[in-house]
Design goal:
Elements (H helix, E strand, L loop, with lengths): L11 H18 L10 H5 L6 H13 L1 H8 L29 E2 L1 H5 L12 E6 L5 E5 H17 L7 E5 L4 H13 L2 E4 L6 H10 L4 E5 L2 E3 L2 E3 L1 H9 L7 E5 L16 E3 H6 L4 H8 L4 E2 L3 E7 L7 E6 L1 H14 L7 E4 L6 H13 L3 E5 L10 H9 L3 E4 L1 H10 L2 H4 L8 E5 L5 H11 L6 E4 L10 E2 L14 E2 L5 E4 L12 E5 L9 E2 L3 H9 L6 E9 L5 E6 L3 E4 L2 E4 H9 L4 E11 L3 E10 L7 H14 L8 E4 L13 H9 L13 H11 L1
Parallel strand pairs: 2-15, 4-5, 4-6, 6-9, 9-10, 14-15, 14-16, 16-17, 17-18, 29-30
Antiparallel strand pairs: 1-11, 2-3, 7-8, 12-13, 13-23, 19-20, 21-22, 22-24, 24-25, 26-27, 28-29
Helix pairs in contact: 3-4, 6-7, 6-11, 8-9, 12-13, 15-17, 21-22
The structure holds 5'-O-[(S)-ethoxy(hydroxy)phosphoryl]adenosine.
The site of 5'-O-[(S)-ethoxy(hydroxy)phosphoryl]adenosine has 23 residues, from helix 13, strand 18, strand 24 and strand 25.
Length: 680
């Protein structure tokens, strides 16, 4: 049960088992299947064209971070540059970066492009799911951001206030984020797939003053009525003063009831003449301290409620800028498409802040990859001439299942670089991506990072380093990352261990909103002096990192990060449930599938209707994306003598694997036998 979780530390047998499981997984899924050097034609035009150049730059970034970051952020707009010696006190768990610097993040993403050829270049090329399109040049994006920030200022939004954004994939989502940044308001984007309940909890946790949303969002031909869902949340969000609503689908598809005095249509708000003060503020925005909070993004942890990861300004911007530039090798001629949702960190860093700070043209698509059919992505690439595609292994595996015929029907010649993010990419998926989508011509960058890291920390630079399908690659600039044993000593090559980061990096999360102690507990308490990622990994003899995945109680289901504790808390809040345990089982498509074991209160009968009711309950408490793949009723859960649920055994039952584990502490062996029998 959720409340037991805080006591469940990693005891020695658990760690032994995890290590064994990791080694097994390495043996079966992580064999080297080949090395793919950067295609010479790609390297010839790449920003970093050789392994030696990468290695030299990486060494410099660690030896002399001050001059490295000074040089690499020349392009960005600072009102005051950081003071000398700002890095001297750079030591984990603190990562104050660019001490003394002041800036307005939106100026680096927008204003700086207005005096260059980027002014008339497309910043966002957007296509809606129904096929409508819209393009915003840098000039137009700047104009829209200025208009919205003036309007928000007139609604009373001030620097330091929190603004919640609950939207789908529409250009207004990016405009909203940048308008907040311009005012110094801290945005918190809440993924449009979250339920009203989840939205309410996040708004209340960060006490947001304003909510930006839309009437509805298109998804597989249907409308998700975001405003109606927001209205339910807003019944219990005392801090929200105003709601701004984008008209996306129109009244014939979703009725948005506007609450007099609180709600305003986006277009009506922007049509108002701003007060002189607000106009001034938006046109010549104030500069903020380097450590000014930029955004809060909620993510799942191994215990308790979601964590409000806080990112600040200069360091975050520096890292997403540098990684966008080198990892995606962005050029003026590119049309770059990151298929993530703006509601997750990938959308923040690699749809909005990173590529826009580079002046890149970004493609944005509103809908699902299979709407109206599995050819949609490929037809979008052909139609718009996308040159860089950055997507997730789950999507790739779904495309494989749908068949080669879909991509083969389209001309994908414009593509020059492919990227992967969110979960380990299995070699089969890598090879298919390379062969069928990239026609053997495009390098693939697998990128490892997390909400907390803010930017890509492990990858292979596309023109410089060879790729090994299944391995993520090498550390990015400024990143000191290692695989270690429990007490912090570094593992030998190919030995499985914990992935940790040993020095601060600019885009490191600074704290958890409202929960500073948990920040230290979650990331810095396991191994002395280092940041623990929660992932298991090994580093091979070439220095390449192979990330196995989470070794804590966080699941990665179809690239969505889900905390088992959240699922369990949601289930036990259902009237029929006594106890619940959530575990992951390997899944060929989603990477991991979510399996829950549930015991019921006395007198409640388990049947199909109850299963459905539990599934709906998860939809309501969290969101449809967190729906369990399998719900299993049981009379009892296996527990240790001290009452802790033995999740490891449940994982084995869920996966149908033979127990190799130690069951000596199991309270009642018959429970396990019964669970296995139910399985057969
Ligand atoms: C996993 C997503 C292997 C990892 C950017 C991490 C990966 C978690 C990769 C963070 C990758 C992400 N290879 N695993 N290339 N990328 N992960 O916060 O377990 O949603 O800890 O950030 O996803 O998920 P988050």
């Amino acid at each position: 049960m959720a409340r037991n979780r805080a006591h469940e530390s990693w005891n020695a047998p658990t760690i032994r088992l995890l290590c064994r499981a990791m080694t097994d997984s390495i043996e079966s899924h992580q064999k080297e299947v080949g090395r793919f050097p950067p295609p010479p034609a790609f390297s010839a035009a790449a920003r970093i064209a050789s392994h030696a150049a990468y290695a030299e730059k990486h060494a410099k970034s660690l030896e002399d971070p001050e001059s490295f970051w000074r040089e690499e952020t020349q392009d960005l707009v600072f009102r005051t540059r950081f003071r000398e010696g700002a890095f001297e006190e750079w030591k984990l768990p603190h990562a104050k970066f660019f001490g003394g610097a002041t800036l307005n993040v939106s100026e680096s993403c927008l204003d700086r492009h207005l005096t260059t050829s980027a002014r008339t270049r497309a910043a966002i090329v957007w296509e809606g799911e129904p096929g409508d399109t819209r393009t915003l040049t840098y000039f137009e994006l700047h104009r829209e951001v200025v208009r919205l920030s003036a309007a928000l200022a007139d609604l009373g939004v001030r620097a330091g206030d929190r603004v919640a954004i609950y939207m789908g994939m529409v250009p207004e989502a990016a405009i909203a984020m940048l308008a907040c940044a311009r005012l110094g308001a801290t945005h918190s984007v809440i993924f449009g797939g979250f339920s009203s309940e989840a939205l309410r909890d996040r708004i209340n946790d960060c006490s947001a003053k304003v909510l930006l949303t839309q009437d509805g969002a298109w998804r597989r031909g249907h409308v998700i009525p975001l405003k109606q869902m927001a209205d339910i949340a807003l019944e219990k969000t005392p801090t929200i003063e105003h709601v701004v609503v984008v008209k996306r689908v129109g009244t014939s598809h979703a009725v948005a009831k506007m609450h007099e005095g609180r709600d305003v249509w986006w277009e009506d708000l922007l049509a108002r003449t701003p007060s002189p003060g607000a106009r001034e503020l938006a046109t010549t925005p104030p500069a903020f301290d380097a450590e000014h909070p930029l955004f809060i993004l909620y993510t799942s942890g191994s215990t308790g409620k979601p964590k409000g990861v806080l990112h600040t300004s200069a360091g975050y911007l520096a890292s997403v800028h540098v990684t966008s530039k080198y990892v995606f090798d962005l050029k003026e001629s590119d049309l770059y498409w990151c298929t993530a949702d703006v509601g997750w960190v990938t959308g923040h860093s690699y749809i909005v802040y990173g590529p826009l700070s580079c002046g890149a043209s970004c493609f944005m698509y509103e809908g699902a990859p299979n709407a109206p059919d599995w050819g949609r992505f490929w037809s979008l690439i052909e139609k718009h001439g996308v040159t860089i595609l950055y997507t997730a292994p789950t999507a790739i595996r779904a495309f494989i299942r749908a068949g080669d015929g879909w991509p083969q029907k389209h001309n994908l010649q414009s593509l020059r670089l492919l990227g992967s993010v969110g979960e380990p990419i299995n070699p089969e998926a890598w090879l298919w991506y390379h062969r069928v989508v990239g026609a053997g011509r495009c390098p693939i960058v697998d990128t490892w990072w997390q909400t907390e890291t803010g930017s890509i920390l492990l990858t292979t630079l596309p023109g410089a380093c060879f790729s090994k399908p299944g391995a993520t690659g090498l550390p990015m600039f400024g990143v000191d990352i290692a695989v270690v044993k429990d007490h912090g000593e570094e593992c030998k090559p190919n030995e499985g261990g914990k992935l940790v980061i040993r020095r601060p990096w600019p885009s490191m999360a600074r704290t958890l909103w409202n929960d500073g102690p948990r920040f230290h507990e979650a990331y810095f308490s396991q191994i002395e002096g280092v940041y623990f990622t929660g992932d298991g990994a090994r580093r091979d003899e070439d220095g390449y990192f192979w990330v196995v995945g989470r070794i804590d109680d966080v699941l990665n289901v179809a690239g969505h990060r889900i905390g088992t504790a959240e699922i369990e808390s949601a289930l036990v809040s259902h009237g029929s449930v006594a106890e619940a345990a959530a575990v992951g089982r390997p899944d060929a498509l989603k990477g991991q599938a979510l399996v829950v074991f549930v015991t019921l209160k006395t007198g409640i009968t388990s049947d199909r209707t109850l299963k459905e009711s539990l599934a709906h309950h998860i939809d309501k408490e969290i969101g449809k994306f967190a729906r369990p793949d399998e719900i299993r009723f049981t009379d009892a859960l296996p527990k240790t003598r001290s009452g802790k649920i033995m999740r490891r055994l449940l994982k084995e039952v869920a996966s149908g694997t033979e127990s190799r584990g130690d069951t000596s502490t199991l309270e009642d062996l018959s429970v396990l036998a019964k669970l296995r029998a139910d399985d057969e």
